[in-house]
TrEMBL record:
GO molecular function, one term: 2-oxo-4-hydroxy-4-carboxy-5-ureidoimidazoline decarboxylase activity
Gene assigned in the entry: uraD
Protein's recorded name: 2-oxo-4-hydroxy-4-carboxy-5-ureidoimidazoline decarboxylase
InterPro entries according to UniProt: OHCU_decarboxylase (IPR018020), OHCU_decarboxylase-1 (IPR017580), OHCU_decarboxylase_sf (IPR036778)
Pfam families found in the cross-reference section: OHCU_decarbox
Pathway(s) served: Purine metabolism; urate degradation; (S)-allantoin from urate: step 3/3
Annotated catalysed reactions: 5-hydroxy-2-oxo-4-ureido-2,5-dihydro-1H-imidazole-5-carboxylate + H(+) = (S)-allantoin + CO2
Enzyme Commission number(s): 4.1.1.97
NCBIfam families: UHCUDC
Keywords: Decarboxylase, Lyase, Purine metabolism
Keyword Kinase set for record: no
Domain annotation Oxo-4-hydroxy-4-carboxy-5-ureidoimidazoline decarboxylase: ranges: 10-166
């Protein structure tokens, strides 16, 4: 189970513990709280589903802002150690901190090309992927249209949040 249990929390405590599940976007957790949390949301997947629904119900502008709140993969902020706790472990978990200079250069080119085309950074749930999988997905998604990439990015962000909540539940148990 999660700690503290959402159903036994107050708004301030809930945000303190779950506000960062969506990268730099605590309003998603707040919307879930305002929507009404019940006992059933004490399970990571149920809470993840509710928080995902809050993002789905947000305006297109709010959704784009959440996408834009994500750091580049293997980017300058990662190299400088400026990522959030979760992003740091996710990027390291995929071996992105082990890139060769050539691989870092490739990520830099792809990050720039993707942002140039879509106006937001490339976001992918990296759990279970290595840097070669990520580079392959990156090249493939660069060919997509804007509407499809917006949808894919939101799906991936909801997936990232589910993995983050599951990891916290594992840590707490
Ligand atoms: N997927 C999982 N973590 C991250 C992250 O920090 N940045 C991006 N772009 N995608 C991710």
């Amino acid at each position: 189970t999660l700690f503290p249990l959402p159903s036994q929390s107050n708004l301030e405590t809930f945000i303190a513990h779950y506000g960062d599940v969506y990268e730099h976007s605590p309003w998603v957790a707040e919307a879930a709280w305002q929507h009404g949390l019940r006992q059933e949301h004490d399970a990571p997947d149920a809470l993840a589903e509710l928080m995902g629904l809050m993002l789905r119900q947000a305006t297109p502008e709010q959704q784009i802002d959440v996408i834009r709140a994500h750091p580049d993969l293997a980017g300058k902020a990662a190299l400088a150690g400026e990522l959030t706790h979760d992003s740091t472990s996710e990027q390291a978990g995929a071996g992105l901190d082990q890139c060769s200079p050539e691989e870092f250069t490739r990520f830099e080119q792809l990050n720039a090309a993707y942002k140039e085309k879509f106006g937001f950074p490339f976001v992918i749930a990296v759990k279970g992927l290595d840097r070669y999988d990520i580079l392959a997905a990156f090249e493939e998604r660069l060919d997509n249209g804007l509407a499809q990439e917006r949808e894919t990015a939101i799906q991936q962000i909801i997936r990232i949040a589910r993995f983050r909540l599951r990891a916290r539940a594992d840590e707490a148990s």
